[in-house]
Structure formats: C-alpha cells, structure tokens
Amino acid sequence: MSSRPVIIALDFPTAEKALAFLDQFSAELHVTVKIGMELFYAAGPAIVKAIQDRGHDVFLDLKLHDIPNTVEAGMRVIGRLGVTYTTVHAAGGHVMLAAAKRGLLAGAAEEGLAAPKLLAITQLTSTSQEILNEDQQIAGTVQASVVHYAQLAQQSDCDGVICSAQEISAIHVAVGDDFLGITPGIRPASAQADDQQRVMTPAAAAKAGSNGLVVGRPITQADDPVEAYQRIMTEWRV
Questions:
Q1: Would 55 disulfide with which of 2, 27, 104, 117, CB 3.0-4.6 Å?
Q2: What is the DSSP code (8-state) at residue 91?
Q3: Which domains does the chain have, with CATH numbers?
Q4: Which residue in 17, 34, 49, 63 is the catalytic one?
Q5: Which residues contact 70 (CB under 8 A, 6 or more apart)?
Q6: Is 63 a catalytic site residue?
C-alpha cells in the first residue's frame, strides 16, 4: 500500500468493464482502485477479490450511514474482505462512527487481516455553499463544517477523512498531520470539473497537504489511461 496513493475510481457499471479497464495496468504498478456503489451493487464482493488477485489494493467506498448496530454489522463484513480503505458518513455521529470502527476491527480479526483504514465522509465535493446552508440547513461555511466533521471523526477513532483538497490544510491544523485526508475532486488543469464543485489539481493538492488523491474520469476516460495515471502520479509526487 502506497503511503500517498493516487486512487483510480472504477466507476463502471459491470465487473467486465471494470476489469477490462484495469487489465491495462500491470500488477507491477500495484495501483489502488476505488470501488463505489455502482460497481459493488452490480458485482458484489467477487469484484473485490478479482482486483486483489490482480495485485492491486481496494478502497471500498460504500459510505455507510445508518443506525449504529446496522453499520457495525456491515463493517464487520467489510473487515473480512481485506480492503485497504473504506468509508462511513461523519454525519451519522460519534456513536455510529465508533460502531463502524468496532465492526471493522472485529471482521478483520476474524480473518487474521489488517483492519482497513476507516475514512469519514465530511462534505461531498459536490456540496456547494448554497447546498450546505439551504438544503442541509447547516449554518456557516463548508470549510467549518468539514473541519468539525474531521474533529468528530478523529475523536471517534477513525483513521482519516474524505474531503476536498481545498479544506485539507485547515483539517491538518485542527487534527494534526497524522490524520489522513484523502481528496477526491482532483482534476488536471486541462480537465473539466464535471459535477464536482470544489476541485484542485494534483500539484496543488500535494502542496496543500493531501495524503492521497481519488481520480476518476481524467484517467478512466483518457485515450491512454496508464499514461494519464502516470502523468498525474508525476505531478502529485513533485
């Protein structure tokens, strides 16, 4: 597992399409890929094993958010899969977050595996100031909400958060540099923002202090995905 990964978002509708894409990447590259709701709901746990068998790490991004008992039970199952990262919504509160961590640790221990890193979702990168204040009825700025959720996640024994790179500096000030900040909404300067609101380039995210990037369409829709991945890695690691 890389300490500062560029995580490729495998946002494909079927296992066949996801694996056909991933087979362009050799096992020697040992990439980390994100399996989100679409792919996991279509292919189930088998897609996790298929990717691991190809020599790659998995970030299982299912964003659990339910009553604590249900989240703990779900995380116990995820803990048995040997994934590297997984996610839960910080908005579920400290009792739910602590339950998620218990479930992960228990499931991993049952299989003799290292527990996945538990990352709390702060505010989605599609959340604008207007959505925060009007739809969610949360007062204040997006950054203040994100920092609050990061502090809550740290207090609840999470390993880090998912946040925009625009907030990562403030998060590290609030909770320290050892608390992971994995940042989606990464776009090379030439790419479109698509449905993301709070975006940043790989180089700017590195300078801000991100601990890992999540990149989807700039890699998956590139003419040469491996070259696009390596170009982003180069920019990220300067």
A1: 27
A2: G
A3: 6-236 (3.20.20.70)
A4: 63
A5: none
A6: yes
